[in-house]
Design goal:
five-stranded mixed beta sheet
Length: about 280
């Protein structure tokens, strides 16, 4: 599908998406008075290094980046629902839930057969235009990861940084990207930024974090050529965790309106990146 047709297709359903999201959220609302209990995480062993990734077919596929961190690269004993290393937080529930919403509210035609986990140093990542990075505040990149992701961004890739907070984690992220793209700097993003009206018209950037409410959320961007009017290469959901909203949107842990807003941001990110 051409870029023009994709843009036309997603625009056609824009007017109906707010209702669709509300209906989707209402459908998963737990009965009044019901006790919500977290489901156990998938039963994968700590030695598992391969994932049931879906084959590349040219359609948009949700990709999560596995990276070297201070805590190690492996999965650990638990993940999703709060366990595992930072790069795996909210996996696979957030990824699966998001792709279902994206398929429901747009005509993008994403791959709904599954989602992928790809190592930060794997050239296979270059096949996919958008990649999600969870908890980059604990990222300790190898040189191979730096080289691969630098090339990825320079070739048109788009990174979503999510689930990190506090000055120490921000300084770590900033230092990483100063190595990758030394002539680029993150800038705070205003509501008028094109990414915030790429599909949904975002009305406020004051999306409260699902946890760690003592931090003030901020959206920051890194633009191609360090030009604030250029293409966004990286968006950082600093002091926030939209993946957490995605993960628990089917369990009633958070208010439906906030989960809907988190989905809107994610949908906008994908539509923006696919049309730039």
């Amino acid at each position: 599908m051409s870029r023009e047709n994709r843009a036309m297709g997603v625009t056609m359903v824009a007017a109906a998406t707010l209702l669709t999201l509300s209906l989707a959220a209402a459908a998963i609302r737990p009965p009044q008075g019901a006790t919500v209990v977290a489901a156990p995480g998938p039963s994968l062993s700590s030695s598992l290094q391969d994932f049931l990734n879906v084959p590349y077919d040219g359609s948009y596929t949700f990709v999560r980046v596995r990276f070297n961190s201070f805590r190690g690269r492996g999965f650990g004993r638990g993940f999703g629902r709060g366990g595992g290393p930072g790069w795996a937080h909210d996996y696979p529930y957030a990824d699966d839930n998001f792709i279902k919403i994206l398929d429901e509210v747009t005509l993008l035609g994403p791959n709904t057969e599954g989602t992928n986990v790809i190592d930060a140093d794997n050239p296979e990542l270059h096949r996919y235009p958008i990649a999600y990075v969870s908890e980059p505040g604990e990222w300790s990149p190898s040189q191979a990861e730096v080289d691969n992701l630098t090339a990825y961004l320079q070739k048109g890739g788009f990174l979503i940084l999510d689930d990190f907070r506090g000055i120490q984690e921000w300084q770590n992220v900033e230092a990483i990207f100063r190595v990758m793209l030394p002539d680029h700097r993150f800038r705070p993003l205003a509501l008028e930024e094109p990414i915030f009206n790429a599909f949904f018209q975002i009305e406020t950037l004051d999306l409260p974090p699902p946890t760690f409410r003592q931090y003030r959320p901020q959206f920051l961007g890194l633009h191609e050529g360090d030009d604030p009017h250029g293409r966004l290469m990286v968006i950082a959901n600093f002091n926030n965790d939209i993946g957490d909203y995605w993960e628990y949107s089917d369990m009633g842990y958070y208010p439906i309106d906030l989960s809907n807003e988190a989905y809107k941001f994610g949908v906008n990110y994908v539509i923006y990146a696919m049309n730039r």
